[in-house]
Amino acid sequence: MAPNFHSLFSRRERQWTAKKTGERVSSSRVAIVKDAALEDANTGLTQLSAVANSFEELSSVVNSNGFNFDLRLEPFCDACSLVSDLFGSLGIAFKFAELEYVSKVNDLAEASRIHGTLNNILDFDVRNDTVKTQGSLSRNLRRVRLGLDLIRALFQNFLSSDDCSLKEAASAAYAKTCAPYHAWAIRTAVSAGMFALPTREQLLLRLNESDESAEKEMQRYIDASLPIIEYIDKLYTSRNIRLDW
């Protein structure tokens, strides 16, 4: 099923109209796309399928055009915004990740008005020697990439066995993707929060998925997100920027 981009575009048009008439409008890209996702729910599109559709669209563009293609920030941020709901479904254990992730996506969405593409924000920070500076767009992109990979690894672990609990899947995914870049205090808080994760059955209920539909949609995201993650990594490595930060 194709993503309901009409709802996204209609909502953007309403946002622009509201600005022109002096109405108060939220500047949060995540909030806008979440509202659109609620409209999608009315057409039978679940959170997982909306995320999978969006990343399949992105990966199709990247795979068709190759690494030299200049991926636009706006559709990238729209797709990433949908992932924030998946963090929310995991509960308090990943609340810190959700808050950081949403903040970084919103910063990149705001930057899309000026910089336009992912390549441009790397070029900007390289020129200004701010790639690894706290709050820089390149650092924000790196953190969003970690969030995408965390969900990908969690899904991969979740599907590896019917006996794999969400706690086991999430703990292994966090240890592999994000823990190496987090301070001791954050790692400790995450470890403690793992005990508050929902059960496998509770997660499926929150996502409005069955075992079969969840497996299908999670696998779609796993397959579609990997080319995007690799694309982002190459933005750094092609500029001789190491990824160990």
From TrEMBL:
Keywords recorded for this protein, A-Z: Lipid transport, Transport
Keyword Chaperone assigned: no
Listed GO MF terms: ceramide 1-phosphate binding; ceramide 1-phosphate transfer activity
This protein's GO CC annotations: cytosol; membrane
Gene3D superfamilies (alphabetical): Glycolipid transfer protein
Location of the Glycolipid transfer protein domain: 72-209
Cytoplasm recorded as keyword: no
Similarity-based family: Belongs to the GLTP family.
Descriptive protein name: ACD11 homolog
